[in-house]
């Protein structure tokens, strides 16, 4: 398995606890389910989230994202059933 650490032109490495708070236009959680929870959903600074993984958000996180104005494209649409 590879990594982007040390990629030329990339910014400094960030701490894992800051991962979800990186400002971006589109966020695509595409690996594991239930990675976005009530504990970290409020940190997300994206306009759009495309659920590439199956069930990357918990129901509580979905509520927080909606309240914060993040447009979530659900996994059943975004990943065509994986």
Automatic annotation (TrEMBL):
Q: Which positions fall inside the Glutamate/phenylalanine/leucine/valine/L-tryptophan dehydrogenase C-terminal domain?
A: 1-82
Q: Which UniProt keywords apply?
A: Oxidoreductase
Signal sequence, start to end:
none
Is this entry keyworded Oxidoreductase?
yes
Task: Please give the SMART domains that the UniProt record associates with this protein.
Answer: ELFV_dehydrog
Pfam families, per database record: ELFV_dehydrog
Q: Which InterPro entries match?
A: Glu/Leu/Phe/Val/Trp_DH_C (IPR006096), NAD(P)-bd_dom_sf (IPR036291)
Taxonomically, the superkingdom here is Bacteria
Give the matching SUPFAM superfamilies: NAD(P)-binding Rossmann-fold domains
Q: What is this protein called?
A: Glutamate/phenylalanine/leucine/valine/L-tryptophan dehydrogenase C-terminal domain-containing protein
Lineage of the native species?
A: Bacteria, Pseudomonadati, Pseudomonadota, Betaproteobacteria, Burkholderiales
